[in-house]
Amino acid sequence: MIYNLYFEANKQAHVIRLGEPKGSFIQYLTINTNGRDELLTIDKAIMLVSSTSINDDKKVFISDICLDEKSIMITLSDKAGTNKNLPSNDYVRVRGNEESVSIDSIENIIEDQDAYAAYNITFKYDNGDHNYTASVRVHCVPSRNLYDVVLDFGSEASQMLIKTATEGGAVIAQELFNNVLKHYWGATVKGKRVYDQQDEDKHLFRSIFYKKENGEMKGDDFEVLLPCKKDPYFSFVSRRNDVHVERIPNVKISFLTGKKAEGADTMRLHTGIILRFLHEGLTRIAEMNERAGGTKDTPIAVRFTLLLPNVMPQTSVSSLLERLKDFSNSDKFLNKHKDSINLLYINVQSCSESDASFLERMNHIGMTDGQRCLTIDVGKGTTDFSITRKLDASKAVSEFRSGFVGAGNALSFAIFLNYMRALGGLRYMDLIKKVLNSEQARLYELDNLIEEYKINWKDKKSSDFKTINVQTASIELILDKIREMGPIGDAYGEVKKLTESIADNILKRLPEVKIDKIVISGRAFKFEMLKDVLESKLREKFNVDKCYYDSETAKSGCLFGACSNKQLSLSSSIVGVPFIIDASKLTDEPKKLVRELGESIENNTVELHPQKDEAKSALNSIISNTERFLGIIRDIFGNPDAGQVAQPTSETHSIRANEVKELMATGKEYQDINANSLISISGRFYTPLNYLIDNDNKPFSIYFDDNDFHLRCRNYSYKLIATAMQGSQELCFESQFPYSLKDGMELPNSFN
């Protein structure tokens, strides 16, 4: 049995697992400010949440607190303690209520604000028969020795920001590709677009990677390798004139499509690419530390925030974060920087891409406490959106998230499709296949050509085109013909149709609730037609005056939001709050629908492969009745039992702030869960693994242990696993342009 214990540190949520003979070990950071820095706080009413059932939960008390320099032992028991002394020493002070031996906080009291200290906290629970323990290490770091690194690993391009933690510290958007080239290839950028990963914007690193011939993910150290020419599996940096074996499908989209390069383990590859970027971040921190007067012996800690798309479900998010935490703090990883930097600890956390964009704008768009904001982030590969409630100037809670594959790259495909129809006539489908099956260098050339026309878009109407012989035309001739034609506008209406599709895809996934502000972000909105179409539909649907868009921060704003020190959902990794849908309002066969969704999950997997036919059938029956589904979501947002509140009042936003805590501290009871229930969390249905909900075990609660959601009742506890995304992912093919066919995808039936 495992007991989960909730506590906070600086209002950030944590859960540890007390096990026998020992449980989990977690680490986190706090800043040494010489101002009674909080190491830990715990509620007076302490609940140990069992891994087995609600009946096995334990209400416990702190019976004793012992200090040994920087070590703290907290003993829990079934009865309140008799030792009413709250101890302190030269390093630590315990604050609380001596009468009840309850802790308000444990504080660092070292007077030297430039000193680093590591505190070890052990929790012990002895029920008379068994002894359960877990431990925590808190790194108390001077602000001048703490660096924030934010990475946006985008489907189009990646970007990084580094910030010093000192008040008013510099916030530096990194010249990511240039720095990687300098640090690990010993080269400098000469000329335009020499490398595949090079972008006109010096702060971006194009997310283009090629598998090496006979490449293998050899050994257990693949994830922690430095960016280098001798990478055993793929080219992290490559020249445009290199001969490439196989382009690696976009990692983020691979989670949805299941498409991957030969021999690829998607999770290992995802982890490895991220950590190679982190290596670059640490190299830059070493340089910044040296310029600030530090040495290689100066103790340094890092807060690493990774921006993640909303299409990733909870299990995938948690699994990725755990892998990144383990690898980044391993000796194999840290030793690669031992000659330049003294790394104490790397704290790893995530933030939704759309939520990060909201945090950057939150205090600039005239929001009052309790108001909701809809944020829509449209990049090159994915569209992400979230509904976030502002609690105060520094805190917010994410109420709803969703997303889909389909964004700026799909617009590029629509422009390309106009040219194919103009040149191919009735045989334009054959022409598409011919062009998209050409060699990598020609596809790269095509991509750049279409992107140029998109950037310089002119919606002029042309219709007098001369077709070519599709059978005999070479790819070189086709590209030349496109150049000769120049911009042809939306000659066949494909761009207009695509923008309408993206906008409608967003709207049909949004609940019909009161939205007070709308923020749009992402470089795709620089394409005015998409921006105009979506803004018009949003203003009509939500009755708002305007959508806030800043072209200057369209791409980078999410980086600044993620390191803004604004707290989102108690800084936990939770992807959203659950709400309950009555399946009988969606179908005449609710139990069949629930069963099909449950049976679609065969095992506890962290990868998102395409769902079985049963899942697709079940989901399609929901999608086919979109209006009914949205109406139900609207009702649920007004149902307090479902954890949602329709209109903000003087009290509702504090209720929403406490909901994440309730889910993590004790679990939240949902009276409405029964055999006809669907559990929805941020645009996905979640189903208990190997269990169909019945009415005999009511009432049910949902618990989040900082990694996974669990459905709990008196006698059982089941992990909740995400099903396929609600709503189709019909733009997957278009979003991988021009590499869709090369990545093994098939032309959608709508084109045939």
Note down, in words, how this protein is organized:
The chain is α+β, with helices and mostly antiparallel strands and 752 residues long. Among the domains are: 3-140, no CATH class; 145-352, no CATH class; 577-681 and 684-725, no CATH class. Helix content is 28%, strand content 27%. It has 18 helices and 32 strands. An eight-stranded mixed β-sheet has the order 2-1-5-6-7-10-11-3, covered by helices on one side. It starts with a strand and ends in a 17-residue tail after the last helix.
Please indicate the percent range of residues in DSSP E strands (runs of 2 or more).
Answer: 25-35%
Strand order of the largest sheet: 2-1-5-6-7-10-11-3
Taking pLDDT < 50 over at least 5 consecutive residues as the criterion, the unreliable ranges are: 602-615, 643-655
Number of helices: 18
Q: Based on Cα principal axes, name the global outline.
A: globular
Roughly what is the average pLDDT, rounded to an integer?
86
Rg, rounded, reads: 27 Å
The major sheet is characterized as:
8 strands, mixed
What percent of residues adopt helix (DSSP H or I)? 25-40%
Distance between the termini: 56 Å
Label the structural class: alpha+beta
Number of strand elements: 32
In terms of quaternary structure, what is this? Answer: single chain
Strands, helices and their partners?
Layout: E1 3-9, E2 12-18, E3 25-32, E4 37-40, E5 46-50, E6 58-68, E7 71-77, E8 92-97, E9 102-108, E10 117-126, E11 131-142, E12 146-152, E13 157-164, E14 171-173, H1 176-185, E15 205-206, E16 210-211, E17 234-235, E18 246-247, H2 251-257, H3 266-291, E19 299-308, H4 314-328, H5 331-334, E20 342-352, H6 353-361, E21 372-378, E22 382-392, E23 395-405, H7 408-424, H8 428-436, H9 440-455, H10 475-485, H11 494-507, E24 517-521, H12 528-542, H13 557-562, E25 567-568, E26 578-582, H14 590-599, H15 613-623, H16 626-637, H17 652-665, E27 668-670, E28 677-681, E29 684-688, E30 700-704, E31 709-712, E32 717-725, H18 732-735
Parallel strand pairs: 3-11, 7-10, 12-19, 19-20, 21-24, 23-25
Antiparallel strand pairs: 1-2, 1-5, 4-9, 5-6, 6-7, 8-9, 10-11, 12-13, 13-14, 13-15, 16-17, 16-18, 21-22, 22-23, 26-28, 27-30, 28-29, 29-32, 30-31, 31-32
